[in-house]
Amino acid sequence: MRIARFERNGTVGYGQVEGDSITPIEGDLFGERRPSGQAVPLSSVKLLAPVVPRLILAVALNYPSHLGTAVASPRPELFVKGLNTLANPDDQIVMPAGCARVDYEGEMVAVIGRRCSRVSVEEALNYVFGYTCGNDVSARDWQRGDMQWFRGKGCDQFGPIGPWIETGIDPTNTWLATRLNGEEVQRCNTGEMINSVAETVSFASRVVALEPGDIIFMGTSGQPRALKPGDVVEVDVEGVGVLRNSFIADPNPMPWVDTRPDLRPARVPA
Amino acid sequence: MRIARFERNGTVGYGQVEGDSITPIEGDLFGERRPSGQAVPLSSVKLLAPVVPRLILAVALNYPSHLGTAVASPRPELFVKGLNTLANPDDQIVMPAGCARVDYEGEMVAVIGRRCSRVSVEEALNYVFGYTCGNDVSARDWQRGDMQWFRGKGCDQFGPIGPWIETGIDPTNTWLATRLNGEEVQRCNTGEMINSVAETVSFASRVVALEPGDIIFMGTSGQPRALKPGDVVEVDVEGVGVLRNSFIADPNPMPWVDTRPDLRPARVPA
Q: At A141, is the secondary structure helix, strand, or coil?
């Protein structure tokens, strides 16, 4: 089953996607829901990030091929992305002025469906509603130079998700591909994850109580490339669909001159 | 002016605090607002976290006395706390099972009042609505062992704020004291900050667009002590008021046995 969030004629709602049409639904997205209108063509709606989370988590270094010289951690290395990072399918993502290198990171994203605190690995998948595609966009030079990854992972729009949530896939054996301007630049199977979805949800639920709608970016594979303005990135999760976003130069660079130079970002473009 | 969020007779709203009474207000908290009812005694309401932010930021290592062996950064080292960390004045804060050391961190918290993107240091304070007290509760052993501070700073309730927002204080010269079970364990002046509120807001606004209601924990001074169940922490910001929270042992420890030992938190209490 595919659940999308969409805008049509100025109204935002949820709907169930079947083929090329979408049927509005009402009720509890994660519980009792029912059709609330006629199916309309998918092409007549604007798809939005399929859920508005309360908490966005992401796992660092979760595929062997992404480790580089790093050593695998014995646990999921989780970090928080602010809600400002949320972005929709097809949104143009701004590459922030002052950042020298922006990378894509194609990922599978787990969507929590039921409140869970301290669930075991064996039970954890019962609390996952479904999966979507995500791009854990990264300001790599900022990420490397800062103690924490607020700038590196937390810029506005740095977490697009979509195009919808698919409830029927196997998170332990799903192909994930990322295309940059149509060229496949990343391919992996979610079975390669160092910490599986079940292990990661269980681990996170020992630290916080996860709520319906919370999401977890499950990590990227390989070594992502740097983006340039005009690039288009597609994250394609088998059985889910394709999340597509373009990247643009910052239309609003610094409008003023710094008076305290050491507060200036490390590399401001000339 | 003091603005509080409160619950009374099952209804949540905002109010203006004067002396021992609070007058409900309606309209835009950060813009046009007006009284919407009669003043009632403060003692008749439950004070809540005075704002529900979209984004919670915090500054690491922002007082010389907190640096220890660390070197001051040339910029505010910001990190994100999830909305799950929000807690109210007087809430009992749970010390998570599996964490060996929980510390208080008494801090001044800036509340953004107007959307701001790329504001200069000189303009930044025009975008701050006011200030409240905060406790950037920290799971110190988790913080030290993890790459990122999701566990170290992001547990449920690890960011209580309150008791209200005071709009009329000078963030460059305000005394801040923290008391542990009545004993003063921290005292500093906000003028000691390595990065001032103005510098931090300006810097953050170069990375993200800050929205009304977003908050920034401005960092702690000195070397905080470890807490034990039953402890009471008071954060007292001159001209604002006192945020008071007690700490309790986790009433709901792990209900199941791990099947993957390396996923077990580093130190589970015996």
A: helix
Tell me the per-residue pLDDT of B203-219, one tens digit each, with 9 for 90 and over: 999 999 999 999 999 99
pLDDT tens digits for range A153-198: 999 999 999 999 999 999 999 999 999 999 999 999 999 999 999 9
Q: What count of CB pairs under 8 Å joins A to B?
A: 144
| Alpha-carbon gap: A36 to the closest alpha carbon of chain B (Å) | 30
Cα dihedral A82, B33, B129, B180 in deg (nearest 10) = -80
How far away is chain B from the Cα of A82, in angstroms, using its nearest Cα? 6
Four-point Cα dihedral A197, A203, A208, A214, nearest 10: 0
List CB contacts (< 8 A) between B117 and chain A: 252
Q: At a CB cut-off of 8 Å and minimum separation 6, what does A18 contact? A: A2, A39
Query: ∠ CA A22-A23-A29 to the nearest 5 degrees?
Result: 105
Q: Using an 8 Å CB-CB cutoff, list chain A residues near B148.
A: 60, 77-80, 148-149
Q: Record the pTM.
A: 0.94
Sheet arrangement for strand A232-237:
A92-95, A241-249, A232-237, A175-180, A183-189
> Which ipTM score applies to this complex?
0.94
